Predict the 3D structure of the following.
Amino acid sequence: MSAVKFVASARTNFGKGAARQARRDGNVPAVIYSHGSEAVHVLIDAHEIFLAVKNHRTSLLEIELDGETKTAIFKDVQRDAIGRVIEHVDFLAVKKGEKQVVDVPVNMVGESASGTQATLELLTASVEADVSALPEHVEVNIAGLEAGTVLHVKDVTLPEGQTWITDSENVVLVVNEIAAVEEETEEAPAAEEAPAAE
């Protein structure tokens, strides 16, 4: 997986006013956290951050700052109350070959048996993987599953290199029979005859 690249600038002004001004200028305040090193405060282009969060939430990132490139992943993304504007981002500097835990959505693929409906009980899951191959989501194949099936985390096999962190006994999904709906047909009342004209 190729890394997403950003060019950052050092952030020298702090406080709410400075953060608002940075966002007006089209930047997002961000912090790069490192193991055993001081946090680095930066500014990154807001549009580039928006696209990366939307399309590459678990991708490996390369952040260039003053000619030095740091490899990182998203640690936390803060949005406004509406959820469309990214207000602040925390990155975690990592090394290739290192493992990290990410929270990702659970997706169902396929269709359960005829006359049944599968319902997700686990919407997001925690998975550990190499930082160079962090998953975007967890896929659960429900093809042909019969009514009454209950899948737990321990029943779902992850791709090689990925490990469940979520409790193995957690229920992922259940398959239920779709209740038949009896349609009641009501006879339309007979039209009243108009009185004969005298």
The domain at 101-177 is CATH 2.170.120.20 (RNA Polymerase Alpha Subunit; Chain A, domain 2). The two ends are 90 Å apart (CA to CA).
